[in-house]
Write a structure and sequence with these properties.
Helix content is 32%, strand content 29%. By secondary structure, it is α/β, with parallel strands linked by helices. The strands form three sheets. The protein has a seven-stranded mixed beta sheet. A four-stranded antiparallel beta sheet has the order 2-3-1-4. α1 packs antiparallel against α2 and α7 crosses α8. The chain is globular, with a radius of gyration of 21 Å.
């Protein structure tokens, strides 16, 4: 059997679930799970994620897509249909901090992240030994603030990845890079956004005397740390914690928030809407 995942969104109105369910029924499918959300039953926006199986393992995806397009036109809806068996390719960019990189590689090797990792790119050459232990190609590109070498990076990543993860990559990607790459980029920021954007967020948090610190995984947008948030985790802190203690505790939060976001992305649980995400 073939397992498919449908993400569907449109203005909330009567009959959406009935029509989508009928579409699956007519194609000899059986719904496994369904999650839905409306921002407001009266003129709000409706979102649904449906996972279903088809008895025919060789079902024609093009035919399914054509029929789904006709259905979507009735509701002026946006939709995406995914084959669960097709693994996405996750490219990784990282600078000197290695805790998120090490965590992702371990989760991938253990089978917890069901993805392919075609490469790791870093402007810190010492990561080559760690990456080599996992048999993954490593590319050292000595990018820096004055020369970000984005042309060289995008030429490596564009064809060989379905999305990118910035696992503490410390350089800002330009709007030109994002446009040229044309696919999703997920970043981990070491603060509870929208607080403490930019550089040294733990020091900012310490100076403000916060009682909770956090980490945020979000999509990358042209404006720094303004992309739609996917996952956030927090931990209480106290007046006894200096900036170094906040950084130490924050590393675990960063790993958790990033792996949570990637897991949701790989499982097609994220729908973008305006400057937000619906995460089922």
């Amino acid at each position: 059997m073939k397992t498919l995942i449908l993400l569907f969104q449109c203005r909330d109105q009567r009959g959406i679930v009935a029509k989508v369910s009928d579409f699956i029924f007519r194609h000899n499918g059986n719904i496994i799970t369904a999650d839905q959300h409306s921002t407001d039953p009266k003129n709000g926006h409706f979102f649904i994620r449906i996972e279903f199986v088809l008895k025919d393992n060789n079902a024609d995806m093009q035919s399914l897509g054509n029929d789904l397009s006709c259905l979507a036109q009735q509701f002026n809806a946006g939709w995406k249909l995914y084959d669960r068996d097709e693994r996405l390719r996750m490219g990784i960019l990282v600078s000197k901090p290695d805790h998120c990189l090490a965590d992702l590689l371990y989760l991938w090797k253990s089978g917890e992240l069901k993805t392919a990792i075609p490469f790791v790119i870093s402007n810190y050459q010492d990561h080559s030994e760690l990456v080599a232990q996992y048999g993954i190609p490593f590319h050292f590109i000595p990018a820096q603030k004055q020369d970000r070498k984005e042309g060289e990076i995008v030429s490596l990543v564009k064809q060989d990845s379905d999305f990118l993860v910035l696992a503490r990559y410390m350089l800002v990607l330009s709007g030109e890079f994002l446009k040229s790459y044309g696919k999703d980029v997920i970043n981990i920021h070491h603060s509870f956004l929208p607080s403490f954007k930019g550089r040294n967020p733990y020091h900012q948090a310490y100076e403000r005397g916060v009682k909770v610190i956090g980490a945020t995984a979000h999509f990358v947008a042209e404006d720094l740390d303004e992309g739609a948030i996917i996952s956030q985790v927090v931990e209480p802190v106290s007046h006894r914690d200096d900036a170094n203690a906040l950084m130490r505790k924050g590393k675990n939060l960063e790993k958790r928030a990033l792996s949570n976001a990637i897991t949701c992305y790989l499982d097609y649980r994220i729908i973008k809407y305006q400057n937000k995400t619906i995460v089922f």
